[in-house]
Specification:
It is globular, with a radius of gyration of 19 Å. It has one domain: Up-down Bundle (Na+/H+ antiporter like fold). It is 78% helix and 0% strand. It is mostly helical. The chain has helices spanning 2-26, 32-55, 66-81, 83-89, 94-103, 109-121, 126-150, 158-167, 169-182, 189-216, 226-247, 254-264, 270-278, 283-308.
Length: 309
Amino acid sequence: MDAFLIAFETVLPLFLVIFIGLLFSKTGAANVHWIDILNKYALWIGFPALVIVSLLQLQSELKIYLPLILINSAYIVAGIFLTFPIAKLFRLPLKTKQSLFLILPFGNVAYLGIPVLENSYGAEILPVAAIIASVYVFWMLTLGLLMVELHKKKAVHPGKLATDLLKNPLLLSVFIGLAIVYFQISVPRFAEQTLRFFSQSVTAVVLFSLGIFLGLHKAGKPGEWVQVALLSLLTMILLPALFYIILKNSSLPAKELKATILEAAMPLGLTPYALSVQYDLDSKMLARLVVFGTVISLLVIPLWIFLLG
C-alpha cells in the first residue's frame, strides 16, 4: 500500500495542474481558444524542444534502441488491426470502426506520458520517452490515418498523408535530434540552454490545456458512458497487461520495459480526438474517452507504476 501511495504522490502534481485548468474552464476564465493556442505552443515549440533536448542525451550508437522501436511498433500495429475482429464481433457502424483505428493503440504518450515518465523515473528516462512518443506519432500519421482513409467512401490521398507526416513538428524534431547525435554535431551552449527553457515549460502548458478541455465537455447521460468505460478498460488495462505478460521475460532493459508499458497504458490523447474531428469520425465518443480515461488515470497510472516497480 505504501508503494502505491508513493506512486500516487508521484503523479498527483500532474493531475493538480489538470484540475487547475478545469477550474479555469468551469469559472469562465479560460475558453476553447486557450486550448488552441496552448496546444499550438506545445506542438510547434515546447515538445520539439523537449524531444531535441532529450535526444541529445542518447548514445551515438542509435542501433541499441532498435528493439525498443520494433517492440512498440509491433504493439501499435497489432492494436490497429485489432479493430477488424472487434468491429465484426460487435457489428459496429463504419464511423465507430474508423474511430477504433485511432482509439485502440494511441494513448496520450506525449502530453501525459512524457511528464508521467519523467516524474516517476527522473530525467534519464526522457530519451527513451521521446523515442517511444515519436514511434506512436509516426504510426498514427501513417498506418492509422491510412486505415481511416481506406474505409472512407472517398478516394485515398497518399500525397496528403505524406505531406502531413513530413510537416509534423514532433517528427521533424526527432529527425533533427537524431541527426545531431549521429553526426556528433556540437550544439552551442546558448542554443541548448534556450531549448531547455522551452522544454521545461511544456509539461505545465499541455496539462493545463487538457484541464480546460475536460471542463468544456458536458457529462451526458450515464448510459452513454458504458461503451467509453469498456474501451478505456481495454486500452488502459487489458491490452497493456497482455503486452506486459509477453515482454516481462524479454531482454528489453528494465527502464525501457517500464516506459513501454506505462506509455501503452495512457488514456486517449487530444491528437486522436482532433483527427476524429478533421476526418468526420465519432468525435463525440473520442471526446468522452479523453475525459473518462484522463479521470481514471489518476488511479490507473499509479497502479501500473506500483506493479512495474
